[in-house]
Structure formats: C-alpha cells, structure tokens
Amino acid sequence: MSALPERTDALVIGGGVIGTSIACHLAEAGVGTVLLERGTLGSGASGATAGVVRTYFPGDPHTGSLAVRSMAAYHAFTERTGTPLGLNRVGFLVVFTEKHQVEEFRRTQAAQQAAGVNVELVTADEAVWLNPLLSERGVLAAAWAPEAYACDPAAIVRGYAAAAQDAGAILRTETAVTGIDPHGQVHTTTGSIRAETIVCAAGPWSRTVASMADVDLPVTTYPVELLLTDAPDAPLTTLPMTLHASSGLRIRAWKDRLLVGMGRPAPDESRQAWLQRLSHQLSTTYPALDGIRLHRGWSGAFDGSPNGTAFIGRHPSRPFLYGAGFSGQGLCQAPAAGEIIRDLLANK
To answer: Which residues contact 317 (CB under 8 A, 6 or more apart)?
Structure first.
C-alpha cells in the first residue's frame, strides 16, 4: 500500500455503502477525494443487513423520499458502474394487528404517496395471500409496498468503490483515524493527511470520529443480530419481506431458509430470554413455523439517530460534513446520501 497523499480536497471517513457512495459522487464531480476505512470495505454496518432495499418506511415519508431517489439509482447501477446488484423484487409487507396502526397508516398514506412511495392498504385475506406463512388470526390489515428488492450489499460497495477509483479517488483500507486537528490535519494509523473538507460516514463509529473534530453528532451505536431458521416445509420462492408492526419481527426468504430479526435484547434482558421471546413471537405470527430451530446468522452494529431519521448535512461553521445515523437503513438511502453530500460541498 502506498503512503497517504499529503493533502486532499475531501476526506471521506468510512468505507461502507454510505462512504463509498459519497466518494463516488464527489470524485465524479471533479473533487479530489480520499476515502479511509478502518477495516475492509463494507465490513461495518453494511455487512450486517438483511440485504433488502425498499422505499416504504412506516411513519417516515422523509426517509421514503430518499429511498425512492436511491431506488432509481439502483435500477441504473449496473449501467453506471458495471457491477450487477442482482436485484430481485420481493416486496415489503407490514402486518397490522392493532386498530391504531391501521388508522396511522391511513393518516400518513397521502404523505407517503407525495414522497413517491408506492404503498397501499390490503385486507387480512390479501396479506395471507401475499405471505402464506401468516395466520389470519389477529391480522387486521397490512401495508403492501411492492418496491422492495433483495440485493447483494457487498456489490453496492464494490460498484461504488470501483467507480470512485475510476474517477480518481484514492481508497485506503486498514487505515483508522486516530485524531483530527482544528486546521484539518487528520492523523491515522498509517500516516497523516491534510483535508480541506472532512466527511464523516463512519457508521457505528461516527460519533467518535466527529468528536475528534469537536463536532457533536448524536449517533448511538447498538448491536444487531440476524438468525437463520431450518428450511421450512413451505416453499419460499415468492415470500415478501414481512414486518410484524407490533413486535418488530422481520422475516425474509434466504435461499431455502428464513432470515429472522427482532430488534435486540432489552437492557435488562439476556440473549437467551430475547431468543425465547423471538421464538414465541415467530410461532404466534407464523403457526407453520412453530418449533422451527433458529441458528446464528450474523451480527454487527448499527448507527442510530434519536428518531431513526439519518443525519445528512454539514456543520454550520466548519468544513465538516456527515452522513450517519441511518439506523440500519443505509442501503436504502446510500445513493441519495452521496448526491446530497456532493451538492452540499459544491455549494459551500
């Protein structure tokens, strides 16, 4: 690995989907760009997702608008970068079991549609037709958003990284940031570099990186674990990604098995108790899966914001920009985040 250059116009810290998207958009706009990643590209939050990009986010049309913008970019991704994403439409089903959830959907549907999100309310019968593993018992209705696709998150990172390098960006892995001086000198484990502008896209480490520059970025870090079931008896070829709104239980087909997640253990809850709670919810929501074995899938850490809406912006008085706090939905917003940071830097 060659030494870091002495200076750069923009220094992007973080090499996941957000950081590589930002580096690509900046480099293609003619901005001298260096990206630093503490591990390997895509080894942070980007490698711990369920691998689905979607446009519908219940109660959050702002995130939906960024996801709609990003989805258009993903459909053009292969042509732009030469990297296939393997997009496979699966759809996104949100199951409502309480009356207030249905009422909330009806209140916010117009705002979702105004943001470009294609989502509709379907009956319990229609929900079971879309996901035959569901039990109609207790289901009042569901939200159905067809624009959701299984994809390869690593391919997004590879495609953006390759396009960034083709446009002149320099990418350095295994290079952790250890300090940031007030005048823009950034110190790393492999040397120092002067940056005219710093862009923080460090995922779970974003708050730590921002604090080095005396910037308060209220991002929290929390663990996430996804599990895999044994292969169920029912075929999974057309199963949508499904969210049980009351419990947060999510499932999606993963080859011949199911990928399952349900938040994380409560602060005073053991992992074993959480697994028992998850298993009970799984069998209640999907009786056909009662007693099915759960296995470790993969785990990681996400960066969250107080309200679940990402921070994408710039510091008001210094050349410090950020894209962080995506709360596990960075895949769905990465193209839009790169475009926004590019435009913010152009209008400095």
So the answer is: none
